[in-house]
Amino acid sequence: MPQLQIIAHVSKRGSSFVITVPKNVAGELKLKEKDMVGFYEENGRYYIKKME
To answer: For the chain, which domains are there?
Structure first.
């Protein structure tokens, strides 16, 4: 298992959960406000990707 690098905060807004993306991760993914991201699962691991 890779070494843990970053911990994100999870909160609840209405009936949804919100994950706070750390600034350095958002920078690496080139995320901006209102961008869409996708979550992918493979063998029990989840991955996040900026949607084009």
So the answer is: 10-50 (2.10.260)
Q: How far is CA 26 from CA 7, 40, 52, in A?
A: 13, 17, 15
- Looking at the DSSP assignment, which residues form a beta bridge with residue 42? 45
Q: Round to the nearest angstrom and report the end-to-end CA distance of the chain.
A: 29
Q: What angle do CA 33, 38, 41 make, to 5 degrees?
A: 150
- Joined together, the tokens standing for residue 35 give 């961008």
Taking only the tens place, the pLDDT of each residue in 4-35 is: 778 888 999 999 999 999 898 899 899 999 99
> Among candidates 34, 7, 41, which has minimal Cα distance to 51?
34
